[in-house]
Amino acid sequence: MSTAMFFSLLLNIGLLVLIATLLTKIPIVRSMLLYDQHSAGCGVMLAVIFGSISIISTYTGVRAQGAIVNTRVIGVLAAGLLGGPFVGMGAAVIGALHRYLFDIGGFTAVACAISTLVEGLAGSLFSRRFKAGKMDSSGVFFLTFFVELLQMVIILLVSRPFTAAVQLIKLISLPMMTMNALGMLIFLGTFNMVFIEEDSQFAERMRLALGIVEQSLPHLRKGLHSPPDMQAAAEIIFQSTSCSGILITDIRKILGIKINSELSDMEDDTVLPPILASTHDRKPTVFHYAGKGDPLYSILKNHMIVAAPIIEMNQITGSLTMIFKKHWQQSQSDLNFASELARLFSTQFELSELEYQKKLRHKAEFQALQSQVNPHFLYNSLNTISYVCRENPDRARELLLTLSSYYRQTLENNSYMHTLKTELHHVTSYLELEKARFEEKLHTEIKNDLQISCFLPAFILQPLVENAVRYGFDKSGNRNVSIYARMENHLIKISVSDNGPGIPESIIHQLYNGEHYGGFGLENVHKRLKSIYGQEHGLKIQSTDSGCELYFTIPANPDPRYEEEYGAARERELTIDNGGINYENRSY
Q1: Is residue 145 part of a domain?
Q2: Considering 146, 169, 199, which residue would you say is the last residue of a domain?
Q3: pLDDT in tens, 396-450
Q4: Are 141 and 185 in contact (CB under 8 A)?
Q5: By residue range, what is the domain housing residue 9?
Q6: pLDDT tens for residues 543-555?
Q7: Are residues 97 and 154 in the same domain?
């Protein structure tokens, strides 16, 4: 009988281990067990779960001399240790009531019900110590052994006739105390092992992802602007993982690709639309199957595709796509890994974009200042003023003050954002000096519809106006430069137009494709606008043989990223207002 009893308890313990493994797969149970803080509803759920485990242990027990040899103590005691007093006592009440009702009037019904409550109380009392890591495996073993010993004592005290209770204790005490103590270690160890295994897998994946990012860092610093660097990053990922292929894209084209020979179809641009479309919801997408005629059909026959979006400044700027060989059991970790790697790439791209934007800002301002403060411009201005001195000293004095104001604005202002009024003030100072130089050959007009007030990057207009003055003249040498600000479809459109021969198509093509064409002014304006407002807000050019219009659109609402800059920009606008000059609508 003793051997059969040991075997029955062993089977019960195996069942409990299976139940524990299944419980660790339920997200809400995992969350409640891993994190001590949970709502009353979650506590009730845990109590019911562990109470149910004790009920199952009762049903699967083996009868012996009017008693039931079982592993009920494991569910109740574990409830207290893992879930705390509320869960432990809740599970104990459920298990005790069921044990009493299961065998009403039975020889040990009352004694076993009482001992179940004691077991729940013991687990609750030791819960804090267990969760704090102050109770090791030996502590759990001896606690279980002790509460089982208490059960034997309670049976002797409560069950009658006493002689029958003594005979029962002789039969069941050793198997139940030793096997349940060992079973408790195995049951808790199952929870711990699954959590440790998952933590280990997650840590390994994160270590791998961080290692890839670290190796790719020199390439990621250049952002998505450099296809050669994205190609190098794709090769690093491919060499570091077991995937069959890697694609790094922007929102239009493949920037980097590394694939096995069997995935040559991935090089076809037709695979991009479904992949890029899947990133619109900002979540990673898994492609398992595709019908005939689908561009992904040949790939998905033997592989699965995981596409994760790359997000910078809350905008989707590209995707990281990984291709894995199909197996009978596809791991969720592949999806998680691709998602985490894309998130790390996004963070690095965002940081690199901020750094790139900062450098671009400094470079743009430097180039703007360089073109404005260059000796040639200064020489022309002073030379013009010297001639005016002979004919109109008052006008010469005005020009000297304008020149002084112009250089003060240029050299002293290091802010990133201006109001439109401040920007027009600066441009007007520049045009007034050029007007003195070209006289009747230069005609300018500044028009601000509805007195629009907005913020825009500092010195963003200066390169456009300078380009119009320098190159926008007709065959007679006349220069007609117009600056307009107006509302269009809830956006503010700001344009600079001239009557010159236009900009060569080759330069426009190079500008739009990110290629350096030899100049800096328009290129810097184009990149600054895109980096601040997004890809669709770059510089637009409409050029003909009889004139050229350079324009851009910006959102009417201020960008919260530059809130601090706006305060300083408003103060500068007040300074201009106090000067009593209206630069919003002016022709001369």
Answers
A1: yes
A2: 199
A3: 888 888 888 777 766 666 667 788 888 888 888 888 888 888 888 999 999 987 7
A4: yes
A5: 2-199
A6: 998 899 999 999 8
A7: yes
